[in-house]
Write a structure and sequence with these properties.
2 domains; Peroxisomal Thiolase, Chain A, domain 1; binds oxa(dethia)-CoA; single chain; five-stranded mixed β-sheet
C-alpha cells in the first residue's frame, strides 16, 4: 500500500469581476444583505460570448498545477474531473480536458457530487494511488454557474451566492505513510436530492418536451435551493465529518495548521470555526472574492493558500465540504 500526496496546485478565475452593487442593478438586492447573510463582496462570472467554459477554465487550472508539480502531462495516469456544470450532457468534461490538453489515452473519470466534488475526487484519486494502480492523478474541479442562473429578483437567493472558476491538484505516489492524504470520509443522503438542484433540463423530460414548453421564467430551468434547510444540514454535517477526521487520526483541533472549508457561505465557516475553537490563522476563506464555486472552491482556496505560504511542509491540513445531494466529506492531509 502506498499513500498519495498533493504535489501541485493551480487555479483559474475569469477576469470579469461582478460586485454586489453590480447585481443590485439587475435585481432587488443590495450589498448589505449579501454581505451580512453570506460574506460575499464580489464574484467572477464568465462574460457571455467570451468562449470560456467549464473545461477551458479547468485546463488553465490544470496547467498551473502541473507546472508547479514539475510533472509532465504525459506522466498523468488518470484524470478526475468534478463539476455540476459540464459543457455537455455527455461525454463528461474529463475527456474534453484530455483532448484540449493533448493528453493521449489515459482514463478520464467524471465526478457528480457538486460542492463535495473535490473531496470525493480526492478520495477516488487516493484509492487508485494507494492500491498501486496509478502513480500520478490530475484532479480538477471547475464550474460555470452563471450561464444557468436567474439574474432577476426571482432567482436572487441563488444567483448572489454562486461564482465561476476552476481549481486543480496533481497527486502522486508517496512511499512515506505519514505524508500525504491520511484519511477521507464521504457521505450522501439522497432524500434531500431536490432541495438543491436544477430539474428542468433533464432526461426525465426529453428535448422535444422541453423545447415545447420552455419558458425562461420557469424556475425549473434555474438552480433551486432551500437555503435554510441546506444551511441547517451543512453546519451539522460539517461538524460530524470534521470530528470523524480528527478522531480517525488521533488529532485535536490544536493539531490543525489550516482548515479549508468548502466556500459555501462565510457564516457557515465562521459558525464551524467558533464551534471547533479555531483561530483566524487556522482557517482559510476566500468566498468574499469568488462566491461559492462548488467543486472548484476547495482547490481554488488550497491553491491560493499554498501560494500565500499558508501551507508548509509537515503542516496538517483539514478539508471539509457539504452540498447538493446532499453530499458531504472531509480529508485530512499531512503536507
Ligand atoms: O454549497 C452549499 C450550498 N449552499 C449553501 O450552503 C447555502 C446555505 N444557505 C444560506 O446560505 C442561506 O440560507 C442564504 C444566504 C441562501 C439565504 O439566507 P437566509 O437568511 O436563509 O434568507 P431567506 O432565504 O430566509 O430569506 C430571508 C429574506 C426573504 O424575504 P422575506 O420573505 O423575509 O421578506 C427573502 O426573499 O431575504 C429575502 N432575500 C433577499 N433579499 C435581498 C433572499 N435573497 C435575497 C437577496 N437580496 N439576494
Amino acid at each position: 500500500m502506498y499513500n498519495s500526496r498533493i504535489v501541485g496546485l493551480g487555479h483559474y478565475v475569469p477576469d470579469n469581476i461582478v460586485t454586489n452593487d453590480d447585481l443590485s442593478k439587475l435585481m432587488d438586492t443590495d450589498d448589505a444583505w449579501i454581505t451580512e447573510r453570506t460574506g460575499i463582496k464580489e464574484r467572477r462570472l464568465i462574460k457571455k460570448g467570451s468562449g470560456e467554459g467549464t473545461t477551458s477554465m479547468g485546463v488553465k487550472a490544470a496547467e498551473m498545477a502541473l507546472e508547479r508539480a514539475g510533472i509532465s502531462k504525459d506522466a498523468i495516469d488518470l484524470i478526475v474531473f468534478a463539476t455540476l456544470s459540464p459543457d455537455l450532457y455527455f461525454p463528461g468534461c474529463g475527456v474534453l480536458l484530455q483532448e484540449q490538453m493533448g493528453m493521449g489515452t489515459c482514463p478520464a473519470l467524471d465526478i457528480r457530487n457538486q460542492c463535495s466534488g473535490f473531496v470525493y475526487g480526492l478520495s477516488v484519486a487516493d484509492q487508485f494511488i494507494k492500491t498501486g494502480m496509478y502513480r500520478n492523478v490530475l484532479l480538477v474541479g471547475s464550474e460555470y454557474h452563471s450561464g444557468g442562473m436567474d439574474f432577476t429578483t426571482r432567482g436572487r437567493t441563488v444567483s448572489v451566492i454562486f461564482g465561476d472558476g476552476a481549481g486543480a491538484a496533481v497527486l502522486t505516489r508517496e512511499e512515506n505513510p505519514t505524508k500525504g492524504i491520511q484519511s477521507t470520509h464521504l457521505y450522501s443522503e439522497g432524500k434531500h436530492a431536490e432541495e438543491l438542484a436544477i430539474i428542468g433540463p433533464s432526461t426525465k423530460r426529453w428535448i422535444p418536451e422541453i423545447v415545447a414548453d420552455y419558458d425562461e421564467d420557469d424556475s425549473r430551468y434555474h438552480p433551486y435551493m432551500n437555503g435554510q434547510l441546506v444551511f441547517k444540514n451543512a453546519v451539522v454535517r460539517f461538524s460530524e465529518v470534521m470530528q470523524e477526521a480528527l478522531l480517525k487520526n488521533g488529532k485535536t483541533t490544536l493539531d490543525i495548521d489550516l482548515f479549508i472549508p468548502h466556500q459555501a457561505n462565510l457564516r457557515i465557516a465562521q459558525f464551524i470555526q467558533r464551534k471547533f475553537k479555531l483561530t483566524d490563522d487556522q482557517v482559510y476563506n476566500n468566498i468574499m472574492r469568488y462566491g461559492n464555486t462548488t467543486a472548484a472552491s476547495i482547490p481554488i482556496a488550497l491553491s491560493e493558500a499554498w501560494s500565500e505560504g499558508k501551507i508548509k511542509q509537515n503542516d496538517t491540513v483539514l478539508l471539509a465540504a457539504f452540498g447538493s445531494g446532499f453530499t458531504w466529506g472531509s480529508a485530512l492531509i499531512h503536507w
